Amino acid sequence: MGRQWIAEQWGGPDTWRFAETEAPEPGTGEVTIRVRAAGVNPADYKHVASPRPGLELPVPIGYEVAGVIAAIGPDTEIASGGGAEGDEVLAFRIQGGYATEVTVPAKDVFAKPPRLSDEEAANLLLVGTTAAQMLEVTRAAAGETILVHGASGAVGVSILQQAAELDVRVIGTASEQSFARVRRFGGLPVAYGPGLAERVREAAQGPIAAALDTVGTDEAVDVSLELVPDRDRIVTIVAAQRAEREGFHAVFGAQPESAAFRDAARARLIALAGSGRLQVPVAKTYPLADAPEALRFLAEGHPGGKIALLP
User: pLDDT tens across 103-120, in order?
Assistant: First the structure.
């Protein structure tokens, strides 16, 4: 018998149940994964904090995992081709990844690059596809300078690395204690707080082509609007109300166009990570049974990297 975290009512992680479950046998087009690591993301708890259209209780928690194939359905191949019992894989976007075993659509399962640890692989794609879409929406292009709010966070670090692949220069806001992290991944750090717009101008020594907001503060939005003349080149993943009011982009994984883009981006990002050109810093691991504690640590902010749950 396996275990899985399930939200049976709307609310925070302390209301979830660590239930005894058994993953169903995979049918055609399905794979059962024995989970070695589950990725931890703010979306895991935000999406069940209150009722959401189209989402019904109970909700198994967790969108991405790494592990090994325990069983594969008849006439089934995983997304990257092939697939057999014992193969190391990662999966995203799935439901119910906070588990010891999970049966998921094979179209969401990919071979794990040997270079990646289970903890890294389990945390690659939610932030990676989010970062990729933000760069795509703002049309960031070689030779340009862009502004990234929250550059030392998980999405910010992925943006920094993917921007470098595009030969895009990044100025990234961060706290001073996180400057080294921004520099490590190719960004030019500036401290947020009063006077931010002037510090960005001084660092840029030229136009800011686009702004990508991962923090959602009024400061981040106000500075983006002040420095980027084309609102079609501003995007947020947090400040949806400001985006609607001010006429710039807000992207979320639940949007159909976002889901389609992120699904299409997975193979490319896995290849980048497999070649060592896209890193996934992992700050801490927790036993699967301690998922609420891991999410409390994440919610405190500035974890310094990704978090993985280990069954």
Answer: 999 999 999 999 999 999
User: In angstroms, how far is the first alpha carbon of the chain from the final one?
Assistant: 13
Single-letter residue type at 74: P
DSSP per-residue string spanning 110-136: EEPPTTS-HHHHTTSHHHHHHHHHHHH
Tell me how far apart the alpha carbons of residues 86 and 71 are, in angstroms, rounded to a whole number: 8
What letter represents residue 90's amino acid?
L
CA 249 to chain CA centroid, nearest Å: 18
Rounded to an integer, what distance in angstroms lies between the CA atom of residue 32 and that of residue 26? 6
Q: pTM, whole model, 2 decimals?
A: 0.97
Classify strands 188-191 and 169-174 as parallel, antiparallel or unpaired.
Answer: parallel
Provide the residue type at 208 as one letter: I
Helices of type H across the chain: 42-46, 118-121, 125-137, 154-165, 179-184, 196-204, 218-227, 240-246, 256-274, 291-299
pLDDT tens-digit map of 289-308: 999 999 999 998 778 899 99
Between CA 88 and CA 65 the distance in angstroms is 11
CA 199, chain centre distance (Å): 28
- The closest of 262, 302, 249, 4 to 124, measured between CA atoms, is 262
Location of structure tokens 């290849």: 271
